[in-house]
Specification:
heterodimer, A: 91 residues, alpha+beta, five-stranded mixed beta sheet, 5 strands, B: alpha+beta, Aldehyde Ferredoxin Oxidoreductase Protein, subunit A, domain 2, Aldehyde Ferredoxin Oxidoreductase Protein, subunit A, domain 3, six-stranded mixed beta sheet, 38% helix
Chain lengths: 91, 616
């Protein structure tokens, strides 16, 4: 699975995109866990104190924020675009 | 500098007679409408909603808010309020940098210009005095040269210059005022009103003055609270850490692209593919960024100063590559060359143009060209950046295709017989959030009192998951009440006049405490929302009297009838009709009109119009 990082998260991961060897059907929870395992500095951005998805990150699958899909249970496909953003806004 | 004296020093400048008179704003107006935006609208309303915008009878108000020039973070803003020559609505625009603060330090809360001068003049403001001086040496010059001229004459220390360029002088309907830091009163064509008045510039020389407040400890506490909120590492405003500080507003390019809310090719598409990355804040930060300028009293430093090192515009050094113009002159025109975007923004800053409107003028003309609708020899190809640069100069001089485009994309498209090709509301072109992918923003465009605007109700902060308000961008239900709440909150903060980005770290409670501490009064968050609602309804009342109602609360058919085909928003249109019904119900309006009972309920007492209002 290809995961794209944006804004300040690129600095945390050190690159724009990463490839993860995860199969179709992997839930977002596992993807996020794998990201935190490979890049421990990312963990504080990904999880809140309850172990849920932090408000400091917005994870999009096919352009939809997983908060509006099935949250951490959202099942992923390898042909989907996965974008991870910190909070961003402006004018 | 007693902050609680705000409103006591408004200079009324009669440009025809060459005189000025200091008059306090009516206390009732300051109490009800706060300052900057709200106060300016009250003056413009008293002048009469039927006035012709490009006539000497239009009023041109430059107003601070009660917090402008103080030490409070993000308070370095002031407002320009007038009747817009682009839309015919009341319009207010806000400028950052140091100009508003210097006006306060020079002893004024506002400058209201009436009539028109026979010859080009500039206003020189210093030490509580204002004089009109001959501007013939700078009439016709770009804003950069004008700033250099006044720096040569008056010295650079403690000096601010706010000027129009050739665009304003030639009454381009979307002409802007720009200051010495390339910060603009961008939208609504306020620069053209300056051109009609032959007012070239406002030059202010004033050293910093400290605020005098009723309770120094209370003021310190309020300022500390705000600074902590802005500096919080979890906030996008966090200096050098938050996305807004590190990348500027252009941090938005990739996320709107990702969710299918980034219009491309005159909004025919809702994403720009890999092109978005090439004009993004991330790309600018890696490849062009040289400095992060800021405004008075702001630690965020969201501006991005860049240097172009190669290509046809090598050597260009400019600020700032913001999201809105990067979209309008970039993705919207099928242009993925960020150096060209920087060049076009720099041209806009120098000639005095709104780059959002300029980009939409181009994209409309590009689509019209593709469809064979423009006169032979005036075609503009998608992404033809050299032609865009050339056409910008021609537009300001009203030559060739520029003669039509100088009237704005809405009027130009109408002249071609194809009004639907202009993406505009009430005559003002849309900003960079496609209503099919961010539905609340679309409702905001339709109900903005100054035409399509992303700042009247920045619900994107909720729809993009920045503020803790649940708002699915693809859900239309609930957006009526949400848009109203944001409009009211922003109307208040625009009247203080705080930077809009304060809303990413602060709430109504913060604003209430700041205002209360500055003025030495009791003021709570419910008072903030009430004042904001009053200001919003005042503006709407002006527009109703100027002929605007339900029929002008629209969106281009492209957004309501043509489904998005890009990921994130595929299949979606803007459900404007039901959102409007929700919104009107939340507002208590009848077919877009503010009823008398609502005006009374909000204490908008128009019978108060008195001679103190300047004869209106």
């Amino acid at each position: 699975m290809t995961v794209n990082f944006y804004a300040t998260l690129r600095g945390v991961v050190g690159q724009r995109s990463v490839e993860l060897p995860l199969p179709d059907g992997t839930p977002v929870r596992e993807l996020v866990g794998e990201l935190a395992r490979r890049w421990p500095a990312l963990a504080e951005h990904l999880f809140d104190e309850t172990g849920g998805l932090s408000r400091r990150v917005n994870l999009f699958v096919g352009g939809r924020n997983v908060r509006w899909l099935d949250g951490l249970a959202t099942a992923l496909r390898t042909d989907q675009v996965i974008d991870v953003f910190p909070p961003v806004a402006g004018g | 500098m007693k902050l609680r004296d705000f409103g006591s020093a408004i200079a009324h400048v009669n440009l025809a007679r060459g005189t000025s008179e200091l008059r306090p704003a009516p206390e009732e107006w300051v109490r009800k409408y706060i300052g900057a935006r709200g106060l300016g609208v009250r003056y413009v309303l008293a002048n009469g909603p039927e006035v012709e915008p490009l006539s000497p009878e239009n009023l041109l108000c430059f107003l601070n808010g009660p917090l402008t020039g103080s030490e409070l973070s993000m308070s370095g803003r002031w407002a320009c309020v007038t009747k817009s020559p682009l839309t015919g609505t009341v319009t207010d625009s806000h400028q950052g940098g140091w100009t508003g603060a210097r006006l306060r330090w020079a002893g004024f809360d506002g400058l209201i210009f009436e009539g028109a001068s026979e010859h080009p003049v500039y206003a020189f403001v210093e030490d509580g005095t204002i004089s009109l001086r001959d501007a013939s040496e700078v009439w016709g010059k770009g804003i950069h040269e004008t700033v250099a001229f006044f720096r040569e004459r008056y010295g650079e220390k403690d000096l601010s210059v706010n000027a129009i360029g050739p665009a304003g002088e030639n009454r381009v309907r979307f002409a802007a005022w720009v200051n010495e830091d390339d910060r603009a009163f961008g939208r609504g064509g306020t620069g053209a009103v300056g051109g009609v008045k032959r007012l070239k510039a406002i030059v202010i020389r004033a050293a910093l003055r400290k605020s005098d407040v009723p309770d120094a400890e209370d003021w310190r506490s309020v300022r500390r609270e705000v600074l902590e909120a802005i500096r919080d590492e979890a906030s996008i405003t966090s200096p050098k850490k938050g996305g807004l500080s590190v990348y500027g507003t252009n941090v938005l390019m990739n996320i709107t692209n990702s969710i299918g809310a980034l219009g491309a090719r005159n909004s025919q598409q809702t994403a720009f593919g890999e092109g978005a990355e090439r004009i993004s804040g991330e790309y600018v930060q890696q490849n062009l960024l040289v400095h992060d300028p800021t405004c008075h009293a702001c630690p965020v430093a969201c501006k991005k100063e860049v240097e172009v090192r190669e290509g046809p515009w090598a050597g260009l050094h400019m600020e700032s590559v913001e999201y809105e113009p990067a979209w309008s002159l970039g993705a919207n025109c099928d242009n993925d060359d960020v150096a060209a975007v920087a060049k076009l923004i720099d041209q806009s800053n120098d000639l005095g143009l709104d780059p959002i409107e300029l980009g939409n003028a181009f994209s409309m003309w590009m689509e019209a060209s593709e469809r064979g609708l423009v006169p032979a020899g005036q075609e503009l190809g998608w992404g033809d950046t050299r032609a865009m640069v050339a056409l910008t100069e021609a537009l300001v001089q009203r030559r060739g295709a520029g003669a039509l485009l100088a009237e704005g994309p809405a009027r130009a498209a109408a002249q071609l017989g194809r009004p639907e090709l202009a993406m505009a509301v009430k005559g003002q072109a849309v900003p960079a959030y496609d209503p099919r992918g961010l539905k609340g923003m679309g409702l905001g465009y339709a109900t903005s009192n100054r035409g399509a605007c992303h700042l009247r109700a920045y619900v994107a902060a909720a729809e993009l998951g920045v503020v803790p308000v649940e708002a699915d961008p693809l859900e239309w239900r609930g957006k009526g009440a949400l848009v109203k709440a944001f409009q009211d909150l922003h109307a208040f903060s625009d009247s203080l006049d705080l930077c809009k980005f304060s809303a990413f770290a602060e709430d109504a409670g913060h604003y209430a405490r700041q205002y209360a501490a500055a003025m030495g009064i009791e003021f709570g968050p419910e008072d903030v929302m009430r004042a904001g609602e009053r200001i919003y309804n005042l503006e709407r009342h002006f527009n109703n009297r100027a002929g605007f109602g339900r029929d002008s609360d629209t969106l281009p058919a492209r957004f309501t009838d043509e489904p998005s085909t890009q990921a994130g928003s595929a299949g979606h249109v803007s459900e404007l009709a039901p959102m409007l019904e929700e919104y009107y119900a939340a507002r208590g309006w009848e077919r877009g009109v503010v009823p008398e009972a609502k005006l009374r309920e909000l204490g908008i007492g128009l019978a108060e119009d008195a001679p103190a209002a300047g004869g209106a």
